[in-house]
Amino acid sequence: MKAKKLCVKLVIILIIVAFCVPLLNRIIYGTFNVYGNPNRLYINGVRYTTNGHILTLKDKPMIEISGTLDKLTGKRVYSTVPNYYKIGNLIYLHLYGDKYLGYSWGGGP
């Protein structure tokens, strides 16, 4: 009987976690799909939107600027310049292997 109650509690906890992960991803990145690329990133209170620019290994950004939530979700964010927080600079989300998706801040729709 105790084993059955323990199993029920574990299943309930797993269900709650399974529903919280997509919701957290939606709050942080603007999409419920935890496997898809986010359409926006918030770094230091600034919203960056994707511009579709993809880098490969030869242009790899060198400075990691990931926040705590980015690290917890496994989405690492990089920049090519130390002062990435200025308007016009790009930041990059590591996709896989040597691919990075670019995000920009300032101007545009």
For this entry, give a set of tags.
elongated, 109 residues, six-stranded antiparallel β-sheet, alpha+beta, 6 strands
How would you sum up this structure, described in words?
Helices cover 31% and strands 29% of the residues. It folds into two domains: 1-36; 37-109, no CATH class. The chain is of the alpha+beta class and 109 residues long. The chain has a six-stranded antiparallel sheet with strand order 1-2-6-5-4-3, with no helix packed on it. It contains two helices and six strands; from the N terminus they run H-E-E-E-H-E-E-E. Strand 5 (90-96) and strand 6 (99-104) form a beta hairpin. It is elongated, with a radius of gyration of 18 Å. The model has no long low-confidence stretch (mean pLDDT 77). The N and C termini lie far apart (59 Å).
